[in-house]
Amino acid sequence: MIRIRLRLALLGIVAAVILGAVSAPFLYASFAASADPALAQTAATDTPTPSPTATTAPTQTPIIWTATPIPATQTPIIWTATPVPATATSAPTATPLPPGYVPDACHPNHTLHQPCALSTETDVANLNFVNGSTDVYSFLLKGGRQYRISAAVTTEGIDPSMTVYLAGATEQPVGQNDDVTIGDPSAVVTVTVDADAWYLVQVVNKAPGDVRGKTYTMSARSIGANSATNVSTPSGAGSASTATEDDVIGNAYDVAHAARIVWAAPYDMSMICPDQRPGACYAGRHTFLLVNVKAGIPLAALTYDLGAGVDTVLTLYKPDPTQTQESPGVLPGWRAIAANDDFVAGQTLRSQVRVTPDWNGDLLIVVAPSSRQDLPPAPADSRPGRYRLIVGPPEMKAVAAVMAAQGDMPS
Q: Which Gene3D superfamilies does the entry link to (predicted)?
């Protein structure tokens, strides 16, 4: 029994040895396999040590740093914008230079081909020679009168010399003057006018030295009537014209005899029929006028200073070759574009029209009595039939002054 047990024990030992020898390779492989992940994990944890390649983070730092100038460059933009309101607010506080230090209102007017048109019967002050020693002006002088044209020195240091020409005939001067009297450098020329015409006045400074701050005053004032009793026909008027001192246009009774007028000049006119035969002006006196216009430039035409019995109607016509009809108020070759009877109904009898032409060329103006009848008798001291007309852009000084002087302008 004991031997049997001993034999079984030995057999178990032998079996264990054999089993261990057989399974040893398999256990080794299993152990190696289980060890590989650990080794891999160890390798993974060890590899970051060379990850100084992550020092790319410092290369990102300059990127973030270079981005910071963006608001920095925006800051000067905001700063430079601040002077805009600063200059705007400072502009009204700027002190203007006194007259004579900058070009005057007539500049540029230094040649006979580029005069500055001035009104008569008024003083035009603060003129200067800052931008040249020669100035040229133009005046519309009425026939049958004498005019005193003056360049009066208002400050020392300039010496104007004056030469007067009839426009269109500048080869021969009408008059010249340097010093009006000894010791007075102002220049004065007296002109006797036979017919309505434009005159050119050339003013040259003869004084040396700096002209800044030194000014003079221009004027052309009527000082009396011409010895001639008749006034010549204005340019463009028909042969039947009967111009007088109170009617410088004369009998411009249709398109063919229309009188040509200019901008910003006041015209003395009359509603009295120039033909004394009964029924000669059966529909009242109509006066036809032509004035040059420019496209896009507004033009105002108005009657004013109405005498006894005058009630005007203004009608403006544009050239229209397609218009062939003819009837009262309808003219061949012309198309009516604007008209006015009483500018302010119930307050005035004068007329005023404003248009903006869309063409270059002539505008036809017809002035007629509102009643379409000849004037009734009226006392002579009321200057019956008399009225005035002015035409031109409303921004021109002479036109604006006339419009502003009318007490019937709507408020």
A: 2.60.120.380
